[in-house]
């Protein structure tokens, strides 16, 4: 790239207010929610980079039970507006190197108006994104992005229409 092209790029970035492209750390996790009637199974996959944020030093990957304890207070399911009980978990699962996988099972009193919720990692990294994969009991698959500003998704009931359905690029 020529000197003039670099200068023009620098001016353009300055005009856009971009001073350091490395300022925002990528922070993400994956959650997989399987709904079967009033029973919901969650598998939460945490990259080691995110898990290290939970350690005292910020350099060590905590054990699965510590990650599970952190997640227990930050993930959940509700049905008809009432929180569902944790039936099993958190339980550490075998995972590929570089990731931790924690499983939960929730038992709801009803299978109507089910909503999933995750507030994990947003207090540590406000730009964190959770890629939620959801399978309902009819076998339909959905993918949703959970963010600091959108920490819950209605799965069944009147509010269950995805805001990304028929959305344009700006909404996505």
Protein model, in words:
The chain starts with a helix and ends in an 18-residue tail after the last strand. It is built from 3 helices and 10 strands; from the N terminus they run H-E-E-H-H-E-E-E-E-E-E-E-E. The protein has helices spanning 3-15, 48-52, 64-72, and strands at 28-36, 39-47, 75-79, 82-83, 85-93, 99-107, 114-118, 129-135, 141-146, 152-154. The chain is α+β, with helices and mostly antiparallel strands and 172 residues long. It is 16% helix and 37% strand. The radius of gyration is 19 Å and the shape is globular. The strands form 2 sheets. It has a 6-stranded mixed beta sheet with strand order 5-6-2-1-8-9. Mean pLDDT is 82; it is low at 18-24 and 158-172. A hairpin with a 5-residue loop joins strand 8 and strand 9.
Summarize the structure.
With 172 residues, the protein is an alpha+beta fold. It has helices at residues 3-15, 48-52, 64-72, and strands at 28-36, 39-47, 75-79, 82-83, 85-93, 99-107, 114-118, 129-135, 141-146, 152-154.
How much of the residues is beta strand, in percent? 35-45%
Element string (H = helix, E = strand): HEEHHEEEEEEEE
Count of helices? 3
Overall 3D shape = globular
Secondary-structure content class: alpha+beta
**In order across it, which strands form the biggest sheet?**
5-6-2-1-8-9
Assembly status: single chain
Tally of DSSP β-strands: 10
